[in-house]
Amino acid sequence: MTLPENFESLIKEATELKLYKRLIVQLNKDLLYANVDLEFNKATLPLSLKLTLQEEVFHLIQNKFADYLNLLYIVDVSEAKVRNLDGIDTLKLSEDVTFLILQREWQKVWFKNHYS
Fold first, then answer.
1. With the CA atoms of 45, 79, 84 and 7 taken in that order, what torsion angle do they form, in degrees rounded to the nearest 10?
2. Which of 20, 26, 49, 64 has an alpha carbon 20 to 30 Å from 104's alpha carbon atom?
3. How far is CA 7 from CA 13, 63, 87, 105, 106, in A?
4. For the chain, how big is the Rg over CA atoms in Å?
5. Which residues have CB under 8 Å from 33's CB, separation 6+?
6. Domain that holds residue 63
7. How confident is the model at residue 104 (pLDDT cuts 50, 70, 90)?
8. How many independent structural domains does the chain possess?
9. Does the residue 1 lie in any domain?
10. How far is the first Cα of the chain from the last one, in angstroms, to the nearest whole number?
């Protein structure tokens, strides 16, 4: 599996494989496990999904850092990838971390679909 390099290609692949709703279900499951008060409807549009998740990530970084770290742990985002991000601009960091979260969630959905 080759991971998508950007949000647009991730959504395109998920839509083409008819797995976008499963991506939302997986994201909702991990948000619940991480105790983050956010849930997406299966009909949520991709841009709305990205922006809402990014807003929540930004809020967690600014106000609930332990919860932010817990979310990254629950989703299983690569620590090395997060460390390679530029943390000076919190808004840019939240955008990059949001993509890493969606990328990891997509990886989980793809593997479950491909190997089950």
1. -10
2. 64
3. 10, 26, 20, 12, 11
4. 13
5. 74
6. 7-115
7. very high
8. 1
9. no
10. 15
The residue assigned the tokens 């692949």 is 13
State the Cα–Cα distance between residues 20 and 23, nearest whole angstrom: 5
Structure tokens at 24: 């939302």
Single-letter amino acid, residue 103: Q
Distances (CA, A) of 17 to 5, 8, 12, 35, 100: 17, 14, 9, 29, 20
Task: Read off the pTM.
Answer: 0.96
What confidence tier does 70 reach under pLDDT thresholds 50, 70, 90?
very high
Rounded to 5 degrees, φ, ψ at 12 are: -60, -45
